[in-house]
Amino acid sequence: MILSSPDPAADPHVAAALLRLQRTSYAREAVLVGDERISPLLEDEIGLTAWRGRWLMAWDGVQLVGAIAWWETDDAVEIHRVMVSTSAMRRGIASTLLSRVLASASGRPVAAATGRANQPAVALYAKHGFRAESDEQIPPGIWITRFRHAA
Ligand SMILES: CC(C)(COP(=O)(O)OP(=O)(O)OC[C@H]1O[C@@H](n2cnc3c(N)ncnc32)[C@H](O)[C@@H]1OP(=O)(O)O)[C@@H](O)C(=O)NCCC(=O)NCCS
Fold it and tell me: Which of 9, 74, 85, 150 is most buried, judged by most C-beta within 10 A?
């Protein structure tokens, strides 16, 4: 597996591969939360490339198999997306990507959120030392759990 940090806005091929991965991967979360109105499934290529946070991607040859996106300031880090190809799940790819972001946080608190019913993601965050902080409905009818990883 090779990790790289290309800017999707600078490479239409990367942007297209990322959008494909996002749609197939987050379709899993939609099933688990019982609702397709989750933001990664509503996003198009324009929205995806307009977002100016950071990306780390995992490649198996030329196949994009995983990606993590996060936003950071001097004081905090916020995970925006974590997604793995349906054919490559449960091989440690999300763990590898998340570990890199946690290491790069260098002591800053790291926030994340996922569907409350998304058991794979809830277990992923718990395994990496995140604590559930609160539940809220975004949008109304979809419960998400907010997590925090303290330094
Ligand atoms: C959640 C997701 C990112 C996990 O990716 P992954 O590469 O399969 O995860 P890993 O192989 O690194 O697994 C790490 C841990 O996550 C948890 N986990 C992952 N998949 C799981 C599953 N299907 N059921 C239960 N726990 C699971 C486990 O704790 C696992 O550790 P273990 O293998 O030692 O038991 C992946 O399922 C995915 O892309 N889902 C769709 C998108 C999504 O829901 N993103 C997160 C919401 S923001």
Answer: 85
